Automatic annotation (TrEMBL):
Pfam families reported for this sequence: GntP_permease (PF02447)
Top-level taxon: Bacteria
Topology in the lipid bilayer: Multi-pass membrane protein
Compartment annotation: Cell membrane
Transmembrane segments: 24-41, 53-76, 96-129, 136-154, 174-194, 225-245, 257-278, 298-317, 337-365, 377-400, 420-440
Organism of origin: Hymenobacter caeli
Family affiliation: Belongs to the GntP permease family.
Stated name of the protein: Gnt-I system high-affinity gluconate transporter
Keyword Transmembrane listed: yes
Keywords: Cell membrane, Membrane, Transmembrane, Transmembrane helix, Transport
Key word Transmembrane present: yes
InterPro entries from the UniProt entry: Glcn_transporter
């Protein structure tokens, strides 16, 4: 019955948004309340779950998205994104731009959380799109596929890191195996699949597309790259210091504070305000106007992500995730496939890759001792399952749709299909490694 209710909720969301033309935030509220009642939540618990889901979701991403949008706006308007795009195009040519951006997504995605990486790379993608008159989805999807895979498969991202600890896996080995699985998944779901999407018409948000500047007015190459990628450089630097310095040392609390994405982005915005703004003759009032415009551009996106969080929390509070996972445990499937399937079903039902991964781990963990499954591969199998079929209840779906200004149909055709390909190919890679590793030992 729970699965039927969730299926009806998804269909209702699709109907309200696609055919009814209802604002997506309102659609989430209109669906969440009857779903909560249908799953047996009393009014007080239903409202508490909605408020908690909306607050927790926004609380974890609002600072990141707002600061990232500000940095992205300045990177675009200053000409830094145009300079980076020009350097990359000259180095690799327009014929290889998909592969170039995909490789950049891999590098950026290792230390950066998905939401941080997304808002930082979008201005770069849009700059390439408008300068060289290329289709936005065709150019951007490979880079976003790389970011998504890093988020779902590899430490130091939240779910994979927690799974490594729960399964007592080896962090370095999991990361190495994850790279072996991630590369073919991203290549197939990114550059190769995106070639079928050249016909999708996308008019990205105008706020993140700056007018083309003459080359003499662009910031320097080093300034452009350093200011734009400063969050990546800072995170890598702090992570390196934490790895070298002894755990529990006097600098530990300060480094942990500096490693927070919100702090990293706040520092980066401050530096970029000087390096791309004040140092190049811009007035502070003009820079602040640009930041205000960036926040206006993403206000609706934040509300939609909050609405998705409210629905997710209602499903969690009702016990839907536990019920679904328990129902799948008696299938008799191989452990790695079972871990992937449990995470995939919870992902489709709840929308959160992190919750899907952590819930699946709790259900699979008791069977690990009996199954003798490789814990490193189990981390990757669950990570792959947690990316399957991103749709209306996933904040990432709406982030992509609204930034790229796509219809629901084209978002499903591009984003949802890409995430599904990544998930299925990821499972295939895990099973191939599971077969090959004993032969290599």
């Amino acid at each position: 019955m729970t699965l039927v209710i969730i299926l009806l909720a998804v269909l209702a969301l699709a109907g309200l948004i696609s055919w009814g033309k209802v604002n997506a935030f309102l659609a989430f509220l209109l669906v969440t309340i009857p779903v909560g009642f249908a799953l047996g939540l009393p009014p007080a618990r239903l409202l508490a779950a909605m408020y908690q889901g909306l607050g927790d979701t926004l609380g974890s991403v609002v600072i990141i998205i707002v600061l990232g949008a500000m940095l992205g706006k300045l990177v675009a308007e200053s000409g830094a994104a145009q300079q980076i795009a020009a350097v990359m195009i000259r180095a690799f040519g327009t014929n290889n731009i998909q592969w170039t951006l995909m490789a950049a997504g891999f590098i950026i995605g290792i230390p950066l959380f998905y939401n941080v990486g997304f808002v930082l790379v979008v201005p770069l993608i849009f700059s390439v799109v408008y300068k060289y008159k290329l289709p936005a989805v065709y150019v951007g999807l490979p880079m976003l596929a790389a970011l998504s895979v890093m988020h779902g498969f590899l430490p130091p991202h939240p779910a994979p890191t927690a799974l490594v600890a729960q399964f007592h896996a080896d962090l370095g080995r999991t990361f190495f195996y994850g790279l072996l699985v991630a590369v073919p998944a991203v290549v197939i779901a990114g550059p190769l699949y995106a070639r079928t999407l050249r016909g999708i018409v996308s008019r990205p948000l105008a706020g993140f597309v700056a007018e083309s500047l003459p080359e003499s007015a662009l910031p320097g190459r080093i300034n452009s790259f350093v200011s734009s990628l400063l969050p990546v450089l800072l995170l890598v630097g702090v992570a390196g210091l934490r790895a070298v310095l002894p755990a529990g040392g006097p600098l530990g609390p300060a480094l942990a504070f500096l490693a927070e994405p919100a702090i990293i982005l706040l520092v980066s915005v401050g530096v970029a305000t000087g390096s791309l703004g004040l140092a190049r003759g811009k007035r502070m009032a003009g820079i602040m106007d640009a930041y205000g415009s960036a926040v206006k551009d993403i206000a609706l996106i934040l509300l939609i992500i909050g609405g998705a969080g409210a629905l997710k929390q209602v499903l969690v509070a009702s016990g839907a995730s536990t019920e679904i996972a328990a129902g799948l445990q008696g299938t008799g499937l191989p452990p790695l496939v079972l871990g992937w399937l449990i995470a995939a079903v919870i992902r489709v039902a709840l929308g959160s890759a992190t919750i899907a991964g952590l819930t699946a781990a709790g259900m699979v963990l008791p069977t690990m001792a009996r199954s003798h499954a490789d814990p490193n591969l189990m981390v990757l199998a669950i990570g792959a399952g947690s990316l399957l079929l991103s749709h209306f209840n996933d904040g990432g779906f709406w982030l992509y749709k609204e930034y790229f200004n796509l219809s629901v149909k084209d978002t499903l055709r591009s984003w949802t299909a890409m995430e599904t390909i990544v998930s299925v190919v990821g499972l295939g890679g895990v099973l191939l490694l599971n077969w090959a590793l004993p032969l290599l030992r």
